[in-house]
């Protein structure tokens, strides 16, 4: 069956749109039909630069258009809640930039608005859609005890002759029960005065802007909220410039989070179990000229290096052909993310199963809940319990 493309309208003309518009235009099943700015001139300049048919003055005017099926909200964080609610009301699907909002209460309202309007909502946290992240998801299934007696007994009788068993067998290590998670995301960037990241009223500060990634990784690996967090911050005027935090989870799991605007570029994590740890030095977005790599260090000292299956033997230049060979493609996480949203829009909710977007909604809501608790801990200068 052939489908007409899902037509996106873009709200905002800032830095991220330069990259994401190209991704929207090059993802099969998606197109960009309009872009809106507070200024008609800026909308026209941006539409002309990207080859977009309609330049629109005003975000509400874009939402009223019939040639827009979905919106990409690329505005400062303080505006995500308002324009997501307005988009849902207008019956448009939503791809919303991170951090999703200023508080978990806002995120809950955004998800509820999308569900009640029966439109799809997805936050633009692209690393969650990378093929490498699927490897992490698979490896995280090996956090059980080393020798599961029920499974071992079942193996003898070949009762577990199913897909999950063979996947498990294919993983050459076990993490063992999770013990510690650590995520650090920062970059040293003295923003220009007007940048929204330097203004608390626009949702600025490193906690929301970069803590979104660190907290998101910790939630991704743990799958749950911590019991207690304690955070300290270095302030720059009214905004948080750097955060260092610890967390305690169920069982004996702990986590450390770091993020900041004044530290060398870091996009690292370590997921440590009793038997092995996963290490990745660019989880938010693979370094431009390197494959999407990660490592597993076993307790014995043995080290496994991984790249995702589609990037095995990929040359340094993305999407180029090896000598005499067929073109190979790196996993481009933004396009996978957009493709996922397009699929959800076309296919609707599956019958008899949980909707696939629920897990992404819960990840976003929990991430923002952690950021709320970290913010409270910074302000109160004491540990905060999450109930
Ligand atoms: N830049 C990146 O690399 C990057 C990466 C990942 C995620 N993001 C996320 O994407 C969102 C936008 O980031 P950005 O870097 O593109 O920001 P930006 O360059 O400051 O652009 C934001 C756009 O929002 C519109 N806007 C509306 N009201 C505004 C206000 N009061 N102050 C400033 N701008 C206002 C402006 O467009 P008009 O005036 O034309 O309407 C502006 O161009 C943020 O949530 C950010 O976290 C950015």
UniProtKB/TrEMBL annotation:
What residue spans carry the region label Disordered? 142-164
Which residue range or ranges hold the GFO/IDH/MocA-like oxidoreductase domain?
174-279
* Bias kind Basic and acidic residues: ranges: 148-158
One Pfam family from the record:
GFO_IDH_MocA
Q: Which InterPro entries match?
A: Gfo/Idh/MocA-like_OxRdtase_N, GFO_IDH_MocA-like_dom, NAD(P)-bd_dom_sf
According to the lineage, what is the superkingdom? Answer: Bacteria
- Which part of the chain is the Gfo/Idh/MocA-like oxidoreductase N-terminal domain? 6-121
Could you tell me one molecular function GO term of this UniProt entry?
Answer: nucleotide binding
| Protein known as | Putative dehydrogenase
């Amino acid at each position: 069956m052939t489908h007409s493309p899902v037509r996106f309208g873009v709200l905002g003309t800032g830095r991220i749109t330069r990259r994401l518009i190209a991704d929207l235009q090059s993802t099969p099943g998606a197109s960009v039909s309009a872009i809106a700015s507070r200024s008609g001139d800026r909308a026209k300049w941006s539409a002309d630069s990207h080859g977009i048919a309609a330049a629109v003055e005003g975000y509400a005017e874009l939402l009223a258009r019939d040639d827009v099926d979905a919106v990409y909200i690329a505005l400062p964080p303080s505006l995500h809640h308002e324009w997501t609610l307005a988009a849902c009301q207008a019956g448009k699907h939503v791809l919303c930039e991170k951090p999703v909002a200023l508080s978990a209460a806002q995120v809950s309202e955004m998800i509820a608005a999308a569900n009640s309007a029966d439109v799809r909502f997805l936050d633009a946290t692209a690393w969650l859609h990378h093929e490498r992240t699927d490897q992490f998801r698979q490896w995280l299934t090996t956090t059980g005890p080393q020798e599961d007696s029920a499974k071992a007994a079942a193996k003898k009788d070949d009762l577990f002759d199913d897909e999950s068993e063979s996947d498990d067998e294919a993983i050459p290590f076990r993490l063992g029960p999770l013990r510690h998670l650590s995520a650090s995301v920062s970059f040293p960037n003295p923003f220009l005065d007007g940048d929204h990241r330097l203004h608390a009223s626009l949702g600025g500060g490193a906690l929301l802007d970069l803590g979104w990634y660190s907290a998101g990784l910790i939630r991704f690996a743990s799958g749950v909220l911590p019991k207690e967090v304690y955070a300290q911050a270095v302030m720059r005027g009214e905004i948080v410039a750097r955060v260092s935090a610890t967390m305690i989870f169920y069982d004996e799991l702990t986590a450390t989070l770091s993020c900041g605007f004044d530290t060398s570029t870091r996009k690292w994590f370590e997921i440590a179990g009793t038997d092995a740890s996963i290490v990745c030095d660019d989880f938010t977005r693979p370094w431009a000229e390197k494959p999407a790599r990660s490592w597993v260090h076993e307790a014995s000292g043995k080290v496994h290096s991984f790249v995702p299956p589609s990037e095995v033997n990929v040359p340094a230049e993305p999407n180029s052909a090896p000598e005499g060979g067929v073109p190979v493609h790196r996993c481009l996480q933004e396009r996978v993310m957009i493709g996922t949203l397009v699929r959800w829009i076309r296919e609707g909710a599956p019958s008899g199963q949980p909707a696939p977007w629920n897990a992404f909604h819960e990840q976003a809501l929990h991430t923002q809940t952690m950021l709320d608790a970290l913010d409270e801990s910074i302000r109160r200068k004491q540990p905060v319990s999450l109930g």
